[in-house]
Amino acid sequence: MQVKEYKPLIVAFCCNWCSYAGADLAGNNRLNYPADVKIIRVPCSCRVNPMFILRAFQRGADGVILCGCHPGDCHYTSGNYFTRRRMAMLFSMLDFLGIERERTRVEWVSAAEGAKFAATMNDFVTQVAALGENKRLEDLRCKK
Amino acid sequence: MQKITKEQLIERASALLRDGTVNHVLGWAQGEFDYDITPAVFSDESSLTGNFVWNDFCGANFSKYLVSKCRTLEGKILVFLKPCDTYSFNQLLTEHRFDREKVYAIGIPCEGMADIDKVKAICGDGISSIDCSGEKLSVTSIYEDSPISVNTADVLTERCVNCKSKKHVAYDELLGDEGDILDSARFDEVAKIEAMTPDERFAFWQNELSRCIRCNACRDVCPACTCEVCVFNNPKSGVENKAPANSFEEKMFHIIRAFHVAGRCTDCGECSRVCPQNIPLHLLNRKFIKEMNECYGEYQAGETVGSKSPLTDYTLEDLEPGEVFDRGDINA
Amino acid sequence: MNKKYLREDIIRMSGVNPKKCMRCGKCSGTCPAYDEMEYHPHQFVSMVESGDIEPLLESDSLYRCLTCFACVERCPRGVEPAKLIEAVRLTAIRRQGANRLTPNDIPAMLDDEIPQQALVSAFRKYTK
Amino acid sequence: MQRIGVFVCWCGSNIAGTVDVVAVAEALKKEPGVVFSTDYQYMCSQAGQDLIVSSVKEHNLTGLVICSCSPRMHEATFRKTAQVAGLNPYMVEIANIREQCSWVHKDMPIGTEKAIILGKAAVAKVNLNAPLTPGESPVTKRALVIGGGIAGIQTALDIADAGFPVDIVEKKPTIGGKMAQLDKTFPTLDCAACILTPKMVDVAQHENIRIFSYSEVTDVKGFIGNFDVTIKKNARFVNEDICTGCGDCVTKCPQKKVPNEFNLGMDNRSAIYIPFAQAVPKVATIDPAHCTMLKTGKCGVCSKVCKANAIDYTQKDEFITERYGAIVVATGFDPISMDKFDEFAYNQSKDVITSLEFERLTNAAGPTAGKLLRPSDGEHPHKIVFVQCVGSRCDSCAEKGKEYCSKICCMYTAKHAMLTRDKYPDTEVYVFYIDVRTPGKNFDEFYRRAVEEYDVHYIKGMVGKITPEGKKLMVRASDLLDGKQLNIDADLVVLATAIEPDKSARSLATMLTASMDTNDFFTEAHPKLRPVESPTAGVFLSGTCQGPKDIPETVSQAGAAASKVIGLLAKDKLKGNPCVASSDELMCNGCSSCEKVCPYGAITYENKEFRMPDRTTRVRRVASVNPAVCQGCGCCTVTCPSGAMDLRGFMNEQIMAEVDAICK
């Protein structure tokens, strides 16, 4: 019998203007990345509340990645600058609590960077898969 | 022993009540024991002389009380502020949480507050009274014949050992001497945890936070937690939760709480003081403060009114979240 | 000495970032010792930046700089060429054996004949 | 509870090739709220849309989930479909199962599984969707242009020609700005006055344009479509409506020793003055700081000679409040002060001048009637040195000049050098440069002509020091290419000074809540795609207030800003984006955190009375979001500690539901 391959669950928050469009471009160019990545569309990376990220982990996500416009290119001029600070602080706090820092990432992906989007997702999935299941953050009640 | 005496405070407060400058006094009152002092509102001279106390156990930071008291009490309120309380006072003003016009703030010097658990560790249980008037604490216990003498320095609370400032950053009137901003070692403990391996850190916090009983005392006392409705009480927030159900929820609670007060926390240490489970909650807040200081420049919440916290600000050259880890590997 | 190491050492000693230079030549335009020099202030900046330091160390130009700081004062980019020249000069002096001075060495040198300023400036030089 | 219909699109084989669409439709049927689920070949086709409309009616649907291509592709299409079916367009959510599923995954079971999860997330979100209606606000069909230089003039003319009334506010007594002071313009060498003054006249005569000269904006309230602006008309002590601009008062005024700012202090004017002959409006202005009558009450000559009886010594500053739909900032620039640059001896010698002063010296209407004469002794200079990049491209730590390149100096210096050589061939001209930057149509050709045809000596190297020696100016510089130090005994030195935004720009930006960069240039809403709009809705940028520019660039930006304004004013009502932030007043702390991160200044605070459960009332400070200004980024929602601030269409609850659906 074949051992079932471990599949990580990745939640990706993508800003509507750059990264979500970048993900669409990856699709247009048929650039493959694992289906483990599920994208949630937000208007701007600065819309992502740390609570969403914690909630994802709580409900069993193995990794969370946040994608936004490159600094300086934010559709709303400054949103991703705030994201950068907030996420730097949140991730550093998660690390402080002993949660693997490889499970979180912020990546700037422009609407033209379909290839970067696919490469980033491939890389992130590999990185999270190497860590195995997220045991430190999940809420056991929520796991089937 | 505190340098300024209870009598001096009562005398000044009485004078201000008498001449009508203030109508109420926010001060400390005797609890069941000498060491469980509670905040109280005094509205006349006789209650002041009867119940007002000031000793080494008057840790409570009154700034937060102003938010509700300014709404419910008529007239002007006198508040006594220790140096660390003045930072919370300013921070609350920055956030427009109370009416400055309704408050008369008297800055009072503080020699550090005593930690009853540390006293108990030395003297054991059964403490019946503590006399703070001498150089040393004189502790009377039902199990001992004569009072035990305890060095104040040995029983200071953690926040006072690592006191960040003896300077008052806000007041209408100052009693006693003004102190200085101190070079404290308050981030040493954070650095120690940072130096652990991720597994050790996880184990450390698992051990600490699993004791949490979600009594919400940390939140309720925190001068940064003055929300009209707390997200943990709000069914629409998605994180509403009244009791810890498992190992993650208290982590979620404490991470979110620390994040909500990040950049606004003045490091007054009230959260750890009131925690019945003695969880070092201040370390979470200090981690944020240390991180923000290192990444975005020194910032002390409440130092001035109207300052912009690092999380509501940015520069074009800020570190990327990944780079925050790379700057001198903290796991090395 | 390794070329890269030499460059970094001079940059460290001087505290100057030669990359900020925009090649305007105002330092050389303002230099009162220009005609005495084989290499001019702007060349010091650009040669240190490219790591081409040996010719500077061997040139007399090092000692023609009056340290008048006109170049430092007028540089629009805040590059401070005089400090760079000073660092190259120090490197040359160190190669000749004169080396570091620590506070402990001072008492032995104290002498009524030596002016205080000489000691202070020597100390400043040799501790860099 | 919603009644949700799920529509799974095949997109031919684009989706159906990798995703089992029937299985997806079947699986989603079991989700809470879903009452109908189906699949179809092309959902975006007319037949597909008809299917949606009929299903809505048949099954009484309240929300739609379309599993199809990217919402960036067809969200608008399906929203319209929903509207046709009688639903609120914002009751539609799209699950992107093409670009983000079938096109990037090859394996059918995996693709199907993911498509189902994406569908579930969309269903979870629609369950919490609420109908949204875009807010509407009226548009006041009048524009305000702040600044009456060439940028403001061009913008105002373009807007006025489209039929909308425009007001220009200019703080000087006349419009015209810096261009009115110039002599000739590069690279074509047209006379500045010849091309500018007709435009000034057009402005004055245009039925749709009002000019508030000698006036400034003191207060701005409101938002896009509805700005309430207070304009202060400074007292000029002359009745503008009666003054004929005959100039009798100017000639008769006994106080004639006032430095003439139009000629940069190189000659004098009288206390009552008209800045220059072609001024618009051509009316006199009394300078209260120098008028003897106003200072001592004794004189009154101008009043006596004025045949129109226009002089009014009792005139007061007047405040006018007007409502505008759009505001264009065209505040322009000034050369920086030379006070910190001792090495160039600007304050020591009259013969060291700035380029703008040089313009006046060569201008036929200038203090020397166009003859190039040394300001110190009126002699003809034979050796002229031009210094480029004075105060531009400085490091910030040097704290003297500006970090940026001022952009126009290379070209106007080439122009000055060329014109000098053309008019006075006996003059030797040197230009000291760091780089010569000539990106522009016919720009490099122009510069090469200066070098090749007019023998201007271009020397690479910055001037280090200028020392006045007798009648000469000793210019010391290094020639970096020849490797030698030069000492030139010049008769005249011209400094190409850096330009900076007008001093009034900073306070104006605060009034407009428009953002600025560290150099006080206004920032644009998007550096590439929205270069003439400020991030603050309804505020537009024209000319050098946004960054250094030459005249052609300024005029094209002015036209672009005008077209944006016309586009705005052409609308009767502004329909906002309904996905905007809103604050729950019952939960708001009034802490001002959200205001600090809002890039649009959409959040304000008010003290509001609340009835408490115990029937008392309490006044609390709460935030309110102006939906006409908010663009819906959601930054405030994360900053808000109490969670009072939420974003419509992307509510906390909705995103949490999506997270839960994905992680289930």
Give keywords.
heterotetramer, B: 332 residues, alpha/beta, 3-stranded antiparallel β-sheet, 13 helices, 36% helix, 11% strand, C: Fumarate Reductase Iron-sulfur Protein, Chain B, domain 2, 0% strand
The helix/strand order of chain C is HHHHHHHHH
Give the strand order of the largest sheet of chain A, numbering strands 1, 2, ... along the chain: 2-1-3-4
Classification by helices and strands of chain A? alpha/beta
Mean pLDDT, all residues of chain C: 86
Q: Kindly name the structural category of chain C.
A: mainly alpha
Low-confidence stretches of chain C: none
Number of helices of chain C: 9
What is the CATH superfamily classification of the largest domain in chain C? Alpha-helical ferredoxin
- What Rg of chain A is obtained from the alpha carbons, in whole angstroms? 15 Å
**Into which percent range does the helicity of residues of chain C fall?**
55-70%
Q: What is the CATH fold-level name of chain A?
A: Rossmann fold
Instruction: State the largest interface.
Output: A-D, 45 and 49 residues
Global morphology of chain A: globular
The CATH topology of the largest domain in chain C corresponds to Fumarate Reductase Iron-sulfur Protein, Chain B, domain 2
Report the sheet-strand fraction of chain C: under 5%
Q: In the CATH hierarchy, what is the class of chain A?
A: Alpha Beta
Q: Shape of chain C from CA axes?
A: globular
How many discrete domains of chain A?
Answer: 1
Describe the model:
The complex is a heterotetramer of chains A (144), B (332), C (128) and D (664). Chain A has 144 residues and is an alpha/beta fold. Chain A has a single domain, classed as 3-Layer(aba) Sandwich (Rossmann fold), CATH 3.40.50. Chain A has four helices and four strands. In chain A, strands 2-1-3-4 form a four-stranded parallel β-sheet, sandwiched between helices. In chain B, helix 4 links the parallel strand 4 and strand 5. The model of chain B has no long low-confidence stretch (mean pLDDT 90). Chain C is mostly helical and 128 residues long. Chain C is 55% helix and 0% strand. Chain C has nine helices and no strands. Chain C starts with a helix and ends with a helix. With 664 residues, chain D is α/β, with parallel strands linked by helices. Helix content of chain D is 28%, strand content 25%. The model of chain D has no long low-confidence stretch (mean pLDDT 94). In chain D, the strands form twelve sheets. Chain D has a five-stranded parallel β-sheet, covered by helices on one side. A five-stranded parallel β-sheet of chain D has the order 20-27-21-22-23. In chain D, helix 3 packs across helix 4. The two termini of chain D are 21 Å apart. Chains C and D meet through helix 2 and helix 6 of C and strand 24 and strand 25 of D.
